[in-house]
Amino acid sequence: MTLEACxxxxxxxDPDRFGAVLAAAPEDRPALLAxxxxxxxxxxxxxxxxxxxxxxxxxxxxxxxxxxxxxGTAPPLHDVLTPLxxxxxxxxADLLPLAEARRRDCAREPLAGVEAVVSYVDATAGTLMWLAxxxxxxxxxxxxxxxxxxxxAGLAAWLRALPRLQRLGxxxxxxxxxxxxxxxxxxxxxxxxxARAYRAVPASAAAALYPGPRVPRFLLEVQxxxxxxxxxxxxxxxxxxxxxxxxxxxxxxxxx
Length: 256
Description:
Blueprint: H1 4-13, H2 15-22, H3 29-44, H4 52-70, H5 81-88, H6 96-100, H7 114-135, H8 143-160, H9 162-168, H10 177-196, H11 215-223, H12 238-251
Helix pairs in contact: 1-2, 1-3, 2-3, 2-12, 3-5, 7-8, 8-10, 10-11
Protein name: Squalene/phytoene synthase family protein
Organism: Paracoccus stylophorae
Pfam families: SQS_PSY
């Protein structure tokens, strides 16, 4: 097994993180590819069955493999787990919170308000960004900066996905426009806090903090009420995606 399967999965299903991986140092790319592909598999696991118990069993399978790897047991040959073991080894146990954060998705219940969304994004996008940043050399004192940036970027991604999440029963309870606007405001302020403290994060970790294309503009439009997140998913053109990733690669600037 090689990283080829992870590379193809990530390129097709998460092009923004795939592009960010290419901006990382070559020696760091295998760990990021394996981590981000695992994240996709964990996010998908709760939707592989409409029965909550079966969905949780699928998620538990991943959690069990991560726990075994943390104990020093190599996984069976697998497109994702084998490269993950090669790159993370026993450190795979540190990835368990990513699986635990997805358990609530198995029940297909909407999030009950702004605070619940913030907690969910912290546990998913926040955990993922910190794991990646830490692997790329971010020191423990930078954790608060990474958490702020992850919350802003994660809320933007969650709001972009909201039409699909609403259909799946995993969106926002009540579907109130003012809640989406409040979330956009929280995201913008979180990004501003991270930007003010960007020096706490080493340049080597820039690829881990890439927020995606056009995040500030999208959040501003949501906050102003110009985008209805419950029905609209503004399109990102290939040019906009390439330009955003080129900026990261050329300048290492992850903040706005």
